């Protein structure tokens, strides 16, 4: 069963046409990987799914759990369970990380008709989760991502993911800037959410992350379109032969 | 009895600022000075013992026992202050309120204005003895003073090695009073002065500060402006380094909504007699909608090479990438905007040393923030024992 169906998607950034009739189906409970050369449109695709203001959808639709979300606001998509782990998480000076996380968690709980967590309940949960990720607890009290190292930012993205428990998780270059220990910790966090129901879309340049998060389906995105879909064996082919192995499709 | 400010100035042979005066370039001073006002007869009263210093229409009515407060004819007057209304306010007030701080002190001052359609003027002189720490918090209530013009100011003399933190927390609502604060600060050798101003609301007002910084002394000035409606509000200042190794750091943050105008016209001047001085100045403004306007004019006037100095100014909207990031986690746009605005303001508010003052200023800010568009007069005295309505 498909959790996400993207049909004939044309998307622009400014005057530049990036996605040119992209079609993609993501199955419930599976780990999908999108690989592709620089400038193929991988990050544009992730931004289009979450409703980034940079992206102008010219044509096509994004259907999530049977609902067309193409026109929804970013927060509506998030509340419905879509989560993007950003390649470069933004720094927000003056907004405490803990306050931000609690606001986000409680917005989701409210949306789901659950009781909101009080400060003490939230902090206990956040500290436990941060500890699992090997994240310094003091990062919860600092301003959101401000002065965090690359690894700390990615751990913080993973912390948000674990606390928000989304159903559809997009990981955009989650491995960039991570040393081996951070990569392992982040991967463990991601694998913790693999429950056979959640869908993952891993966007990456390199296969390194795929040693930790095993893909079910691999797609190659080139020049704004999916040009190849296959099983995990495609990763090895691309590693050995590069995107040239796919020919000029 | 009604008299115009201009008539009063003529009788004292004093010049008044006009719309061409540089310090008032962005503020409509003439319409304020052209009006006729009732004059307020100040009747001195017995001063009651209280936790705060309370001044009502320029008269001290309450004061803490440990503070020496008196009226004086003799006073300090800076002959070089750039503001004509500074001199005018000194000339027109026969006496000033003198606050003599001899020991480490934490002083809360409530200025309350009650007279309607009146010209209300008074001055304070604050002397902080050398090697002494003073934390002074000023707040203002003037809901009843409809149509009044308040010309107030202080002269603050920070003695050698003194530490002074002076905080002004003033929310003004339209159709109440219009204040001009004309202040002077002298930071004597090795003293450290921290000046905070929090100017909120939807009505006009201007603060003019002149200051002199002596050898090894430091002035940190932080200004937070949050205005809306058609308010014209802000700060005009000069931080003047007169002796060697003097330091200043000035930061202004302004949040402008509706068709309000923010003013930050600030000069740091370093004399040839002040080698080794350090001066930094920065202004950041956020315009929340089209029509809001910021007049930001940070300036450095440096008369010697051996100094370290910088200045900068940015004017923009809320950061779209930050806004999107918050929204992408399920936080709705209003809430996300609120988080970013409070964060912008908090960087200055949280820099103060006293928790209870930090909380009071947060409280003032949030009252204005949540009341936007329908501000009612905010008559809250954070440190008063009695409730003021």
Give me a quick take on this structure.
The complex is a heterodimer of chains A (249) and B (389). Helix content of chain A is 33%, strand content 30%.
Structure notes:
The complex is a heterodimer of chains A (249) and B (389). By secondary structure, chain A is α/β, with parallel strands linked by helices. Chain A has one domain (2-246): P-loop containing nucleotide triphosphate hydrolases (Rossmann fold), CATH 3.40.50. Helices cover 33% and strands 30% of the residues of chain A. Chain A contains seven helices and twelve strands. Chain A has helices spanning 42-50, 74-79, 97-111, 119-132, 150-164, 180-192, 233-241; strands at 2-13, 16-27, 31-35, 55-64, 67-68, 82-85, 92-96, 143-144, 168-172, 199-204, 217-222, 225-230. In chain A, the strands form three sheets. Chain A has a six-stranded mixed beta sheet, with helices on both faces. In chain A, strand 4 and strand 5 (67-68) form a beta hairpin. In chain A, helix 4 packs across helix 5 and helix 5 packs parallel to helix 6. Chain A is globular. Chain A starts with a strand and ends in an 8-residue tail after the last helix. With 389 residues, chain B is α/β, with parallel strands linked by helices. Chain B has one domain. Helix content of chain B is 16%, strand content 46%. Chain B is built from six helices and 22 strands. Chain B has helices spanning 5-11, 29-34, 84-92, 320-327, 333-349, 355-370; strands at 2-4, 36-39, 48-49, 53-56, 59-63, 68-72, 96-101, 105-112, 118-128, 133-141, 149-158, 163-172, 178-187, 192-201, 205-213, 218-227, 232-241, 247-256, 261-270, 277-287, 293-302, 307-316. In chain B, strands 1, 2, 6, 7, 9, 11, 13, 15, 17, 19 and 21 form an eleven-stranded mixed beta sheet that branches. In chain B, helix 4 crosses helix 5 (333-349) and helix 5 runs antiparallel to helix 6. Chain B is globular. The model of chain B has no long low-confidence stretch (mean pLDDT 93).
């Amino acid at each position: 069963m498909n959790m996400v169906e993207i049909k004939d998607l044309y998307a622009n950034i400014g005057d530049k046409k990036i996605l040119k009739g992209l079609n993609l189906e993501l199955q419930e409970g599976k780990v999908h990987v999108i690989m592709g050369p620089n400038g193929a449109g991988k990050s544009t695709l992730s931004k289009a799914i979450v409703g980034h203001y940079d992206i102008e959808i010219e044509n096509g639709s994004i259907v999530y759990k049977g609902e067309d979300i193409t026109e929804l606001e970013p927060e509506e998509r998030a509340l419905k369970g879509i989560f993007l782990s950003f390649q470069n998480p933004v720094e927000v000076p003056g907004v405490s990380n803990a306050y931000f996380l609690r606001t986000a968690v409680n917005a989701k709980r409210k949306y789901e008709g659950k009781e909101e967590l009080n400060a003490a309940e939230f902090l206990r949960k956040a500290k436990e989760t941060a500890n699992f990720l090997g994240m310094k607890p003091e990062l919860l009290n600092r301003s959101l991502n401000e002065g965090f190292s690359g690894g700390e930012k990615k751990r913080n993205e993973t912390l948000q993911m674990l606390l928000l428990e989304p159903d559809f998780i997009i990981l955009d270059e989650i491995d960039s800037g991570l040393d081996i220990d951070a990569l392992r910790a982040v991967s463990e966090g991601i694998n913790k959410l693999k429950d056979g129901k959640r869908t993952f879309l891993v966007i990456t340049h390199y296969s390194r992350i795929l040693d930790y998060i095993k893909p079910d389906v691999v797609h190659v995105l080139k020049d704004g379109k999916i040009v190849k879909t296959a099983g995990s064996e495609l990763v090895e082919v691309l590693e050995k032969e590069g995107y040239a192995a796919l020919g000029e499709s | 009895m009604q008299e115009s400010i201009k008539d009063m100035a003529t009788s004292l042979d004093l010049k008044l600022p006009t719309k061409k005066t540089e310090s008032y370039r962005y503020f409509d001073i003439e319409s304020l000075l052209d009006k006729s006002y009732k004059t307020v007869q100040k009747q001195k009263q017995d001063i009651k013992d209280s936790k705060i210093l309370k001044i009502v229409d320029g008269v001290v009515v309450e004061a803490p026992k440990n503070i020496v407060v008196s009226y004086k004819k003799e006073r300090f007057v800076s002959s070089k202050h750039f503001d004509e209304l500074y001199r005018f306010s000194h000339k027109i007030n026969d006496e000033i309120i003198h606050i003599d701080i001899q020991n480490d002190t934490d002083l809360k001052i409530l200025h309350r204005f009650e007279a309607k359609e009146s010209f209300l003027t008074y001055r304070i002189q604050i002397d902080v003895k050398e090697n002494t720490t003073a934390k002074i918090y000023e707040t203002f209530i003037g809901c009843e003073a409809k149509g009044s013009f308040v010309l107030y100011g202080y002269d603050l003399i920070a003695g050698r090695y003194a530490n002074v933190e002076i905080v002004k927390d003033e929310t003004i609502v339209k159709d109440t009073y219009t204040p001009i604060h004309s202040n002077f600060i002298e930071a004597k050798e090795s003293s450290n002065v921290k000046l905070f101003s929090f100017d909120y609301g939807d009505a006009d007002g201007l603060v003019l500060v002149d200051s002199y910084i002596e050898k090894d002394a430091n002035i940190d000035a932080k200004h937070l402006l949050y205005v809306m409606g058609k308010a014209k509000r802000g700060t005009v200042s000069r931080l003047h380094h007169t002796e060697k190794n003097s330091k200043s750091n000035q930061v202004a943050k302004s949040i402008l909504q509706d068709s309000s105008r923010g003013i930050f016209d600030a000069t740091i001047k370093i004399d040839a007699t002040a080698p080794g001085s350090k001066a930094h100045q920065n202004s950041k403004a956020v315009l929340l909608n089209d029509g809001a306007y910021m007049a930001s004019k940070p300036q450095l006037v440096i008369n010697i090479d051996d100094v370290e100095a910088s200045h900068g100014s940015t004017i923009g909207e809320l950061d779209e990438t930050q806004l999107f990031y918050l929204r992408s986690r399920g936080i709705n746009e209003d809430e996300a905007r609120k988080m970013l605005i409070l964060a912008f303001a908090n960087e200055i508010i949280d820099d103060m040393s006293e928790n209870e003052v930090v909380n009071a200023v947060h409280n003032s800010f949030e009252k204005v923030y949540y009341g936007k568009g329908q501000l009612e007069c905010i008559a809250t005295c954070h440190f008063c024992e009695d409730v003021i309505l």
